[in-house]
Write a structure and sequence with these properties.
This protein has about 375 residues and is mainly beta. It has three domains: about 25-135, Immunoglobulin-like (Sandwich); about 145-230, Immunoglobulins (Immunoglobulin-like); about 240-340, Immunoglobulin-like. It is built from two helices and 28 strands. The strands form six sheets. Strands 13, 16, 17, 19, 20, 22, 25 and 26 form an eight-stranded mixed sheet that branches. Strands 2, 4, 5, 6, 11, 12 and 15 form a seven-stranded mixed sheet that branches. The longest helix has 19 residues, at about 360-375. The protein is rod-shaped, with a radius of gyration of 39 Å. Mean pLDDT is about 90; it is low at about 5-20 and about 355-365. The structure holds 2-acetamido-2-deoxy-beta-D-glucopyranose (NAG) (4 copies). The site of one 2-acetamido-2-deoxy-beta-D-glucopyranose has 6 residues, from β3. The site of one 2-acetamido-2-deoxy-beta-D-glucopyranose has 5 residues, from loops. This is Lachesin. It holds the Pfam family I-set.
Length: about 375
């Protein structure tokens, strides 16, 4: 290409007239692509410049940046010891490369830069010009407004989760389930690339946290979590459907129940007393707790409740119910408390290693265990 230009220039020179002196922009102005904050360099190589001057012009902001090596913009602040704009000229034979340097790139520095040769004695529309592109890459950002934070839908409904992002180049947006499961699409897959995740015939199994990641290869990628809640009647399950404990030794029993529902159900523990079923309230005998810490064993929207039956007595051996209610309905599970001869559970006193070889020692151990049981089980 440049050989061809040379040849053309050469031919013109041979023909021997005034056009032979016309300056030219040889080569393309190669596009420059740099991340935000970095330095961009555009090169304009000219031949036969003579006493004409090279101008750099930013089309997007409609301003002349430089003429020859002089910066023409109003503001050319120092940035880390160097100016925002600079032009460096390298000369080789009859060629000059005018390199425009733009430091600390901002988004508004992007766009089209025109290298113009201001040909003396010619109107601007007859100047030699060439365009170059400066792209400023921007890491992705998720736009909170149009992005779903929490989506609440009825069972069986159709809806979608949305994730809107900006970034240059425009990022790829990928959905996954944060528990690593498959996405509830017509053909379930682990990931789905689109700003919108369609949800068809939503059911309780679709509830949970969904993650969208916007990535355009400019670090760091942006990430967002969206939660899908499906309105439904409560579902209850127990950790163990029967729990044993010994009586009359100040041991307590722990009955556990896991509840799911949306809106969040109210939970009541009940117990059977003969033919009656009585509600249990937090008192000296019973303690109800809702586990607040995130539990690995819990699925989306599940709550873990425990009922502690303190100081288990003979009349505590019966059926217990955890009953959950919300506007969509109610559910219950049963846990049986039964009698054992030994202490059960993690809070039982453990025997210290017995190396008793004298009567005194074994008496000591017996007393010690007694004290321990008292301390642990009360
Ligand atoms: C312009 O030239 C400089 C120095 O040779 C080089 O570092 C830079 O990458 C060039 N710019 C483009 C867009 O090719
Ligand atoms: C949801 O979409 C599916 C498939 O397009 C359709 O069969 C179903 O009737 C829709 N459900 C509702 C509640 O609109
Ligand atoms: C989006 O993903 C495709 C395929 O993996 C990739 O070729 C393309 O470069 C990505 N786009 C961006 C902006 O990262
Ligand atoms: C548990 O649910 C069953 C079936 O819905 C119901 O018949 C029973 O009365 C409920 N038990 C309690 C204690 O609420």
């Amino acid at each position: 290409m440049s050989c061809f230009v040379y040849l053309a220039v050469f031919t013109l020179v041979l023909c021997g007239n005034v056009f032979a002196q016309d300056p030219e922009i040889v080569d393309e102005i190669w596009p420059e692509v740099q991340p935000l904050g970095r330095t961009g360099r555009l090169n304009c190589t000219v031949a036969k410049l003579g006493n004409n001057m090279v101008e750099w012009y930013h089309e997007d902001s409609a301003q002349t940046i430089s003429i020859a090596e002089t910066i023409d913009v109003q503001l050319n602040p120092m940035m880390g010891g160097l100016k925002k704009y600079e032009v460096r000229v390298r000369r080789k034979d009859d060629r000059q490369t005018h390199m425009l340097i733009v430091r600390r790139l901002r988004q508004q520095d992007a766009g089209t830069y025109i290298c113009k040769i201001r040909v003396v004695g010619k109107p601007e529309n007859r100047w030699t010009k060439k365009k170059g592109q400066l792209t400023v890459q921007v890491a992705p950002t998720i736009r909170d407004g149009p992005t779903t934070a929490v989506l609440e839908v009825s069972n069986g409904a159709n809806s979608s989760l949305r994730c809107q992002a900006t970034g240059i180049p425009y990022p790829n947006i990928t959905w996954t389930r944060s528990d690593g499961g498959l996405l509830p699409l017509v053909n379930p897959v682990a990931q789905y690339r689109s700003p919108e995740l369609p949800l068809v015939n939503v059911n309780v199994h679709h509830m949970g946290v969904y993650r969208c990641v916007a990535d355009n290869n400019i670090k760091p990628p942006a990430e967002h979590l969206a939660e899908l809640r499906v309105f439904h009647a409560p579902i209850t399950r127990v950790v163990q459907n029967s729990v044993g404990q010994a009586q009359n030794r100040r041991f307590s029993a722990k009955l556990e129940c896991i509840v799911q529902g949306h809106p969040e159900p109210t939970l009541t523990f009940k117990r059977r007393a003969g033919i009656e079923i009585l509600a249990i309230s937090d008192d000296d005998k019973f303690e109800v707790n809702k586990q607040t810490t995130d539990n690995q064993n819990l699925k989306a929207m599940e709550q873990w409740y425990t009922l502690k039956v303190k100081n288990v007595q003979a009349n505590d051996y019966t059926d217990y119910y955890c009953v959950a209610n919300n506007v969509f309905g109610s559910a219950n599970s049963t846990i049986k408390l039964f009698e054992t001869t030994e202490c059960q559970g993690s809070n039982c006193p453990s025997l210290p290693p017995s190396r008793a070889c004298s009567t005194a020692a074994s008496v000591f151990v017996t007393v010690f265990v007694g004290i321990l049981s008292y301390l642990y089980c009360s």
